[in-house]
Structure formats: C-alpha cells, structure tokens
C-alpha cells in the first residue's frame, strides 16, 4: 500500500509499506477521500506536541470497510463510513459523558494515531467504542468526509445559539471566508439566519463567495454595524479584537479558530461585557453525536457542499495539494488516495 508520512521536521514523504494487520477489535478501511484541514497546514508548518513520531496526518475521512476483526459485529466488509477526528480516551468522565472533544488526553486521528492520507488505515477501539464514526449510503465519499469539519461548525453554532438570550439572532458576522467560515455560514443559514456577512482578505475567495452563495463578502467591515453572533474562523488575532468592538448587546462572540503560537493576547474591557451582557466563548472540535448529525444533514440534502470542493488530487500529489490549500485559491481540497 501507498501511504504518506510527516516526519518531525515537518517533511512529508510518500512510502510503500506492507498492508498492516488488524487485531480482533479493529477494522481496516480503504480510504476513499480525505480532505485537508487548516490544522493540517499548521502541523506541516509548526508541528504539534501531540505528534511525537513520524505520522500519517489527515482527519476528515471517508472510506469503505476492507477488513474486520473477529470481535466486530456492528460493521461488515463493504460498509461505507465517515470518520471524524476527536477520539475518546475511554477512561474519563468527560468522554463517558460524550464530550470527547474536551478530553484532556486529547486523542485524535492524524495526531496520536495515523490518519487518512493513506490508501488503507486502521480504526482502533478509540474510534469504534464511542468515537466519531457513522455509516453513509446516499452521498459521495468526497461529501461524506466533510462531515468532520461540518460537525465542528455545528458545535460552534449550536453552543453560540444556546448562549444568545435576546430572542432570535438577526445577523451574524464571520471573520474568514475559508472552508470553516463557509461551513459555519452554511449551518447558520440552515438555522434560518439569513443575514450573514463574511470578512475575507483574499480576492479570489470573495469572488467565490459572491458567485456561489447569498452571503455578503467584504474586505473591510463597517464599524457602525453591530452583530448578534460573531465567529472568528481565521488565525488572525486582530479579528478577536475587532469582534469585541462589533458585538451587539446580548450578542455572542465565538473565538472559533485557533491562533498560531506567536499570536499573543488581547486586552478585554470587562465592564463593556458586563453592561451589554455579551457572551464570550470558544468552541473546539466536535463530538461523535455532532459528527452523526452532520452526516445526516449531508445525506438528507439539507446542506449541499458540492460547490465547496474546488480541487481533488491523488496521494502522490500531496505536496501540490497542500500548496493549493495554503494559497487560499481553493476551498475544500480533497485527496483520493486510491485513485
């Protein structure tokens, strides 16, 4: 089989290795699609403390069950499955309560365990016992792998909506018109929030948003307009500062996207938060139930993400695919390892 490996110098190599063996409690899937995530780009630039050895990255995955262990009853060879990132440690209250994205052990595919930028991969007990895996039948593998990032958008939006106490939000602002910003916008729209503004510095992405959606796309924000919901879906600390100025009374700011290590901190006027009853929050990753919900939305057609897939590559072109993802010229970049 052909696989990719990221070494600790953040260099990716393509290797041919023997097909791995599985235990009685594991399954092996033939990876059909694996999308590139912004966090994959961070890993290839900065590394990650959870990656301590050469690793196959990639955690937005769909595939076909290729082999099953003797103890596996829920899956059969030929099943199509979508697989998410955040995994339960199987040994703490947070995971037992279903909030695996908040587990302090912080297991994830593509980090402590090999991910999906490979032709075949093993799904272990952390995936199969309460992890983010669900079967699909009605959509393509390219769409099915997007259940993982859509689940992250669901986590962010649902929690933000629960924190908004002044009736129904009338508008929303998203900093960042990349894939995660678009997924947040799509899920907001499916929740009947129609006045959505996306701030994006990249001209091709602004054109893409205007050509493919009904969302507003701006380079410069009007400081006189206030927003009920604000999501920072880009790695720029300036957007965190702006969000505090643009939030409406009783509004919710979700610091959705992580920042690079050198980003620094922001100052907060807590009195302003106090008197306006603003809510400041963050969300990270997603839960298995949110992953299942995302897959259901995609299979039902309630959210259509076909337009968001702008580039597809085979595994041998992984470096080119990462370059396109870094360039901002595309949206969702899909690797099809077996094509």
Question: What labels describe this entry?
Answer:
alpha/beta, 6-stranded parallel sheet, 7-stranded mixed sheet
Description:
The protein is α/β, with parallel strands linked by helices. Helices cover 29% and strands 24% of the residues. It is built from 11 helices and 17 strands. The protein has helices spanning 38-46, 93-96, 125-128, 141-144, 147-163, 179-190, 203-212, 237-246, 270-276, 288-300, 318-327; strands at residues 2-6, 12-16, 27-35, 60-68, 80-83, 86-87, 107-108, 120-123, 133-135, 172-175, 196-199, 216-218, 227-232, 247-255, 279-282, 309-313, 332-335. Strands 3, 4, 5, 8, 9, 16 and 17 form a 7-stranded mixed beta sheet that branches. Helix 11 (318-327) links the parallel strand 16 (309-313) and strand 17 (332-335). The radius of gyration is 20 Å and the shape is globular. The two termini are 13 Å apart. The relative contact order is 0.17.
List the helices and strands and how they pair.
Blueprint lengths: L1 E5 L5 E5 L10 E9 L2 H9 L13 E9 L11 E4 L2 E2 L5 H4 L10 E2 L11 E4 L1 H4 L4 E3 L5 H4 L2 H17 L8 E4 L3 H12 L5 E4 L3 H10 L3 E3 L8 E6 L4 H10 E9 L14 H7 L2 E4 L5 H13 L8 E5 L4 H10 L4 E4 L4
Parallel strand pairs: 10-11, 10-13, 11-12, 13-14, 14-15, 16-17
Antiparallel strand pairs: 1-2, 3-4, 3-8, 3-17, 4-5, 5-9, 6-7
């Amino acid at each position: 089989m052909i696989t990719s490996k990221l070494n600790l110098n953040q260099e990716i190599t393509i290797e041919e290795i023997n097909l791995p063996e599985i235990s009685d409690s594991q399954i092996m899937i033939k990876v059909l699609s694996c999308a590139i995530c912004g966090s994959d780009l961070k890993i290839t630039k900065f590394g990650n403390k959870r990656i301590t050895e050469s690793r196959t990255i990639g955690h937005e995955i769909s595939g076909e069950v290729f082999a099953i262990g003797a103890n596996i009853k829920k899956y059969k060879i030929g099943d199509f499955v979508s697989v998410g990132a955040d995994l339960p440690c199987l040994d703490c209250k947070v995971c037992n309560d279903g909030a695996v994205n908040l587990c302090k052990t912080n297991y994830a595919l593509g980090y402590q365990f090999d991910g999906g930028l490979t032709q075949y991969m093993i799904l272990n007990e952390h995936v199969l016992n309460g992890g983010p895996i669900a079967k699909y039948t009605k959509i393509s593998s390219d769409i099915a792998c997007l259940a993982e990032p859509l689940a992250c958008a669901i986590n962010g939006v649902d929690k933000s909506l629960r924190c908004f106490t002044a009736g129904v939000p009338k508008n929303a602002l998203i900093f960042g018109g990349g894939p995660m910003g678009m997924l947040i916008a799509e899920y907001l729209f499916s929740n009947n929030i129609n006045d959505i503004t996306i701030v994006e510095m990249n001209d091709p992405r602004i054109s893409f948003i205007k050509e493919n959606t009904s969302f507003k796309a701006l380079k410069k924000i009007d400081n006189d307009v206030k927003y009920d919901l604000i999501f920072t879906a880009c790695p720029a600390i300036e957007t965190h500062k702006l969000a505090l100025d643009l939030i409406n009374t009783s509004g919710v700011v979700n610091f959705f996207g992580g920042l690079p290590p050198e980003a620094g901190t922001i100052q907060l006027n807590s009195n302003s938060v106090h008197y306006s009853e603003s809510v400041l929050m963050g969300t990270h990753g997603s839960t298995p139930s949110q992953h299942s919900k995302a897959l259901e939305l995609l299979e039902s057609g309630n959210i259509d993400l076909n337009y968001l897939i702008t580039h597809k590559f085979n595994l041998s072109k992984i470096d080119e695919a990462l370059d396109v993802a870094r360039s901002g010229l595309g949206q969702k970049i899909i690797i099809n390892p077996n094509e």
